[in-house]
Design brief:
alpha/beta, about 15% strand, about 400 residues, Rossmann fold, elongated, 14 helices
Length: about 400
Amino acid sequence: MNKKTLKDIDVKGKKVLVRVDFNVPINDGKVGDDTRIQAALPTIKYLLEQDAALILTSHLGRPKGKAKPEFSLAPVAEYLGGLVPVPVKFAPDCLGDVAKNAAADLKTGEILLLENTRYHAGEKKNDPAMATELASYADVFVNDAFGTAHRAHASNVGVAEHLPAAAGFLLEKELKYLGESIANAESPFVAILGGAKVSDKIGVITNLLEKTDQILIGGGMANTFFKAQGYDMADSLVEEDAIETAKELLTKSGGKLQLPVDVVIADDFAEQAQSKVVPVGDVPSGWRILDVGPETVSAYAEILKSAKTVVWNGPMGVFEFPKFAKGTFGVAESVAASDAVSIIGGGDSVAAVKESGLDTKVSHISTGGGASLEMLEGKVLPGLAALTDK
């Protein structure tokens, strides 16, 4: 990566605008899952040690360009205050006099969190005026929000045009694993792809077919591949308009795409549904596939045993229902038990690995769903491209 990182720029005693990803669940005015806040702490603490003044910006949810109290970052400011050695000040807007004055009054060694950037329509439009105003608060810009690096917004791409811009420690770590580790992957390199839709992962599969030794398929997307092979899927989720694409991918894969051999089916999409394990071609009318079966978990475990690099995106089944979580958790155990460099890429697969209690046994858990998918597709992320070259 030939972009400047935090240690490449002088931040001592300077005002530093830091784009963090504090898009966290808020329940009854309290922070639910603090994973993304914890992930930003190494950058925040380093800047405090350098006697910088920190102005933090983030979005939260989808307020659609309007100030809505349920999307306020105020609870995050309070929560962050309990994790750092200094009080966290909060500005009730990210633009205008209230933000400008709060930033101007900020002293070295202090932290200010600005209100939700998406309260302004200019954020998602990468509005030059909004970017210029945000940049005017600081001397240096640090982007540590991997979760929005695939979006060209005012608070990540726009401000980088006005200030020396570097990657924070979290962004640097994400790029190391999702960029360098995959580009220079040690073989055997195995990808595990799940989730509901093939259409969401066409770019990822196409890119990874060139790089991996095998791709293990699970989740709802497997059903579309089964249908492409001529199996009757009964009431299972199938993307009818992706069947031809699935056929092409199977042909192009040269045997790299591994599909489940058995599945767990249910007579209803419900936690308490009747369930049984059947071979892939034996789904009776009125039933649907909700997980991969035990033989598949064993077959995938055998492949993962010798893997040196593993990247995983998307669960193997409807893991939200405990009865249909065995496939996902079984695969998680195999990944954790392997000696591979293991990278879990965003979204539901992260939730599944955490729920299985194996999150400390993998090399890297990505904080960005959409951003990690685009990295796996081999795309250039705007938030990264905007940073200052080394």
